[in-house]
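Please, structure for the following, as C-alpha cells.
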Amino acid sequence: MNATEVIDVTRDGLVVILQIGAPVMLIALGVGLVISLFQALTQIQEMTLTFVPKILVIFVALIFLFPFMLGVLTAYTEGLFSRIATGG
C-alpha cells in the first residue's frame, strides 16, 4: 500500500465520518437555536430546558437516521475490505 492509497482510505474515512455525524449535529444545532431563542424571548434560564429536548430529539434522529448510517458504514467497510483483499 503506497501513500496515495493511504490518503484515499483516510479521505474516504473522513467523508464517512462527516456523512454520519453531520445530520445529527445539524439537527442538534437547530434544536439548540430554537431553545435559545425561546429562552431569550421568555427570559427563562433553566439549564434542563436546554439539554432534555435536545437529547430527546437526538435520540429520535438517531432512530430515524440509523438505516442511512448503517448503509454508509457498510458501503465503506465493504470497499475497505475489497481493497485489502485485492492487495491495495
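The longest helix spans residues 3-42. Residues 19-78 form one domain.
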